[in-house]
Amino acid sequence: MKTFTLIIGAVYGLVAVILGAFGAHALKKIISVDKLASFETGVKYQMYSALFLLIVGYILKFETPSEKWISILMIAGTFIFSVSIYLLAFSEVAAIPSKVIGPVTPLGGLMMIISWAMLIFYFAKNKL
Fold first, then answer.
1. Per-residue pLDDT tens for 62-71?
2. pLDDT digits (tens, 9 = 90+) for 50-60
3. If exposure means fewest CB atoms within 10 Å of the residue's CB, which of 10, 28, 50, 73 is most exposed?
4. Of 44, 52, 36, 55, whose CA–CA distance to 16 is shortest?
5. pTM of the predicted protein model
């Protein structure tokens, strides 16, 4: 789980940089300013999550279920949150049904919040 967390953290970071560059250069001509701002929010949170995963990948030993869930919830939550925002940003140009995707975004965000809360409890319990 440790290696998996570190790899996903690095992949999320790599993809965030690529998408950030893509958004800054190519998307300005394709989507509205509001949609571009949403896209950038997805990129920003993906990068935050990448750093989170890299840090917890080094800190946690992944010996307990709660340590594993900290990672799992952040990985899954980030994927759901950011990908749904990316799809919403393209909803006008790609005819993607935002009524289906829109409600998914908060679920990903909630998973990320729970992961952060679990990390806080982990630190408090282990007094690192």
1. 999 999 999 9
2. 999 999 999 99
3. 28
4. 44
5. 0.90
